[in-house]
Structure formats: structure tokens, C-alpha cells
Amino acid sequence: MFSLRGYNTFGIEAEARQFVEISSIDQYVSLRKSGVHADLPHLFLGGGSNVLLTKPQEALVVKISIPGISVLKEDGDFVWLKAGAGVVWDELVQYSVDRAWSGLENLSLIPGTVGAAPMQNIGAYGVEIKDTFESLEALNLQTLEMEIFDAKACAFGYRESFFKRAGKGQYLISSVTFKLSKKPSVKTSYGAIQDVLAAKGITQPSIREVADAVIEIRKSKLPDPKDIGNSGSFFKNPTVSASEAARLIDENPGIPHYPVEGSTDVKFPAGWFIEKAGWKGFRRGDAGVHAKQALVLVNYGEATGGQILALSEEIKKSIKDTFGVSLETEVNIL
User: Fold this and answer.
1) CA-based, 20 to 30 A from 69: which of 54, 62, 275, 302?
2) How many structural domains does the chain have?
3) Residues 114, 134 within the same domain
């Protein structure tokens, strides 16, 4: 058995039957063709930043460590940047920011690896992966052939994609390509970015200044997994119909809310509901809700995945009973 404690940002102690780390798709194909561990299901891990391990994994855990960042092509306006699935996400972001290539700066300091980013359609501060996504390469786990997916094929939604729905468990993402702008148009209206920039006297920010503002905000609100085990946002921000939104706004004056692009639906911050229901800073044993950000569940040391999962279910019930709103888990429960 192999301990996965060092391979998930919650710091949960869970064991896998077998473990292997790969740095290329060819390595994995060779493993499959060899027949070794053919009796075990395969579980793929990137940075382990979006999983909650609740039990021993009766599987071969495959750690994806495919490296590499390269420019595929560029013109006067754009650059097409390709990154291996094992590249640390923030390293890719800072690589692009250092070169003044715009599009990823609002996604600074999000934990995880490049390969997991399109699966979740990760997003923050008014930006999502789909905004700059060009294509990805993925191994079909049935045919062991490579396939290319464009944005339409990925079927991106809010923290959703084809790879979390119809294609779940059928592909191994090996690389992702982004189309970034050489003529930056920064987005500063979401969250506290504008406030942080204003406090510094910055009125026409560069993408580096936007990235730095995002990093400052995230560090002030979110715990570092190296200090306190966590997986970032545990719940999705709920999206409700216009009529349901009207009810919530009427019953909760001042509640923050945001229009959903291309829809009459309205999005509300899950953290607001959790905080108002009294869960912020709650702790039971080593499982808790972070004191500064109610959206983040934490492991203070020796919590089990089961204890954190049980806490999350209590929170869901509480929010449903108090506000009539259903919260959906963003983290993958394994």
C-alpha cells in the first residue's frame, strides 16, 4: 500500500493499492500494454488540489507529471501557449504574465496542475479557462489513441466540462493550449481587485499589477495548503432562476449577487450563505471551516476525509433549511 497524504492538498491520510508517476503519455501507454496492474482500476492525480479522499483507494494511482511550456505559434496580436498536464498551474500563469501575455492573470495562485484546469473550467475574479482555451490533447483510455478537443467539444460550463460529465473516466489529458493576447485588456471589476489597485494609486494597471492584486487578495483570504490542509473552494457558487433570486434578495437585503452571462439566472456567493448560517470558523476536532473564508473547509491536522465530508453535508443541510438554497460540491469526492 502507498500513502497518498503527500499527494492531496487536504493532507488526508489515505492509501492506494499501487502508485506510479508518469512524465509522458508514452509511459502510460507502455504501462497499459504491458498488462502490469491490469487487475486494478486506474485513478489519475494531478496536483491533488481538488479531491477529498474518504477511503483507501483500491486502485493504481497514476500521478500525472507531464512537463513543458512552449509557444506553438504567434502573430502580432496573439500567442498560442502549450503546457504539459503536469505543469503547476500558477507557474504557467506567471510564465505568461512575465511575458505580458494577457488572459490568465486573474487566475493567479489557483492551486493544481494544467491538466485539471479544463476539467473543472477553473475560474476566479470574472475569468474562466474557457475564455482563453484553444484546445487540448487527451488519450482515449479505451483505444489508447490521442484525440484533440476544441472548446466546443469540451462543453464548458460553470466548474464543469465534458470530462466531468459524459467523458468522465474516459480520457487522460496530456496538454492544454491557450490563446493569449499581446494587447492586454485587463479585467478588474470583479471582487476586490479594483479596491486593491486603488489603494496603491494604480489607475491603469498592467497585467502584472492585476496578477499581484489577485495574489494579494487570495493570500489574505485563503489558507496555504502547506500550513492548513484544504482544497480551496469546497462548494460551487449557487446559480438560481430570476424568480428565486428575487425571493432571496427580498428576504436578505444587501446579499451580493451577479448576473449569469447569456442567461436570466443569477449567481450568489456560497460563502455568504455559509457565513450567515454561522459556520465560518467552526471546528470539530481537526475538521473545520476556515476562519477567514467560509467557502473553504480545512483539515487542521488529522481529520479524515469522512469527517470533512460529514461536515460538508451538515453545511449543505443547514443552508437548505435556512435559505432554501442547494449547495453543490466543487471538490471531487473519492
Assistant:
1) 62
2) 3
3) yes
